[in-house]
DNA sequence: TTCACAGTTCGGTGGCGGCCGAAGCATCTT
DNA sequence: AAGATGCTTCGGCCGCCACCGAACTGTGAA
């Protein structure tokens, strides 16, 4: 079996602590330079260089040269989902000593990006609000935007053009994503990405420094409360 | 960050060739003995024992003692999905020398189990047939069983009891799963599992020896043709 | 009881791979 | 042109871990 060796190689690549840290850092969808990645991984630039070469060689990362910088990002959403599923298993299982959660970790649990959508307490709360309002149906296998939800998103300026599957136009579907910190589903997929984009563009949330954490702005608090019915304790 | 080290550990566990082979072999959802797993991994029993101990210690595998045998199986569907996503990345990327596909591999491409549902050409064909007939809607983010499809499955004896999300009963959703050999989605999730169970119970398909491959029976050919509109060239 | 077999534990060996220091390119600045 | 910065390649060191032989435990069969 050919794929089996490749499977082991991919998993092995993700299995090194330094490379894992890099993948983790790239999970917000942004592109980072080699030096920055060396920093988050806690290794010297030359070591990081080797790791990054292997990761892009295998196709996990995509590179973009820009002047004397090299920007690395996850090669595809598929890679992001792989990292996501690994993270789920890693956090769900191994209940051994849940280590002291530092302030950085706390910020991540409050709100963070998960590749292209919102996760953490905020992400789960948003999903809950949309379900409660009847805009979205969520089950373990998948999700569905209701007609009412379609109008709701349209009001927000999000046009969820219906995809075509085969020759029939289908309903607007969305993907639930089990949150590794909250253990409950938040909104992923195309709808989740659109919602995240809107929230960033509207200034409801802002990316925090060099981490994946998100900060809810004052304007965002109002928007999430008025439009999504959220009572945020994310302060 | 605490989870990061655990992430690396899980990935690292999956990254060893022998352990990868074991996970791969367990992907059909059955439980195998330690000796059998040693066989598929190509290592001696004592080496396999060590691997199995680590895998179950980490929570990837579940053990069941039965007489002087020890049956190992994947610990949860979450683990199966993790392996699945790793497999997707491993096969999609790394276009380096697609190795000669042996007969065993050919059998797997024709039809196989993917944890609890049907994959391979048969799986994709079934999904296509259901979509064409209007029983199921599939998009990249998720899938949906139509009212018509609900009746169809009911006729087959599959009762897709509606899940409850919050206090509202939702539509029946299903999960599309990108097939690593066909590069197209097949039916996974609760619906896919039910369909696989039915096909096995009805004798339409049979598990082949000790592999994940499936063989379509003569009765199955007729059933898939008459009920799902499939023109099988799976011979 | 004795044997056979499944599975594990232990000890020792070997190799792969991650790590850094030093040096080499490439690019931008002055 | 000279220097600074980002990144890479090279060489050597070191540790971890997969592997097997051998011996031990426990279960089932004769």
Characterize the structure shown.
- Two copies of one chain form a homodimer.
- The first copy, chain A, is of the alpha+beta class and 235 residues long.
- Chain A has two domains: 4-75, Arc Repressor Mutant, subunit A; 79-228, no CATH class.
- Chain A is built from ten helices and 13 strands.
- A four-stranded antiparallel beta sheet of chain A has the order 6-7-10-11. In chain A, strands 1-3-2 form a three-stranded antiparallel beta sheet.
- In chain A, a hairpin with a 2-residue loop joins strand 8 (164-165) and strand 9 (168-169).
- In chain A, helix 3 (34-41) crosses helix 4 (45-57).
- The radius of gyration of chain A is 19 Å and the shape is globular.
- Chain A starts with a helix and ends in a 7-residue tail after the last helix.
- At the A-B interface, helix 1, helix 2, helix 5, helix 6 and helix 7 of A face helix 1, helix 2, helix 5, helix 6 and helix 7 of B.
- The structure holds a DNA duplex (30 and 30 nucleotides).
């Amino acid at each position: 079996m050919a794929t089996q060796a490749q499977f082991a190689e991919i998993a092995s690549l993700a299995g090194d602590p330094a490379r894992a840290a890099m993948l983790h850092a790239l999970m917000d969808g942004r592109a980072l330079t080699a030096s920055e990645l060396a920093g988050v991984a806690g290794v010297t630039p030359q070591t990081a260089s080797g790791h990054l070469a292997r990761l892009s060689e295998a196709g996990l990362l995509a590179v973009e040269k820009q002047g004397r910088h090299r920007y690395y990002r996850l090669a595809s959403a598929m890679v992001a989902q792989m990292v996501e599923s690994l993270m789920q298993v890693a956090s769900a299982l191994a209940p051994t000593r849940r280590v002291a959660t530092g302030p950085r970790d706390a910020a991540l649990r409050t709100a963070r990006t998960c590749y292209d959508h919102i996760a953490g307490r905020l992400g789960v709360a948003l999903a809950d609000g949309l379900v409660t309002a009847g805009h979205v149906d969520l089950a373990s296998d998948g999700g569905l935007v209701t007609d009412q939800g379609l109008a709701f998103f349209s009001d927000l300026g999000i046009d969820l053009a219906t995809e075509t599957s085969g020759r029939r136009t289908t309903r607007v579907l969305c993907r639930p994503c089990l949150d590794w910190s909250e253990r409950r589903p938040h909104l992923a997929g195309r709808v989740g990405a659109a919602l995240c984009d809107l929230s960033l563009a509207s200034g409801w949330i802002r990316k925090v420094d060099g981490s994946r954490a998100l900060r809810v702005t004052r304007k965002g608090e109002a928007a999430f409360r008025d439009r999504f019915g959220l009572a945020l304790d994310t302060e």
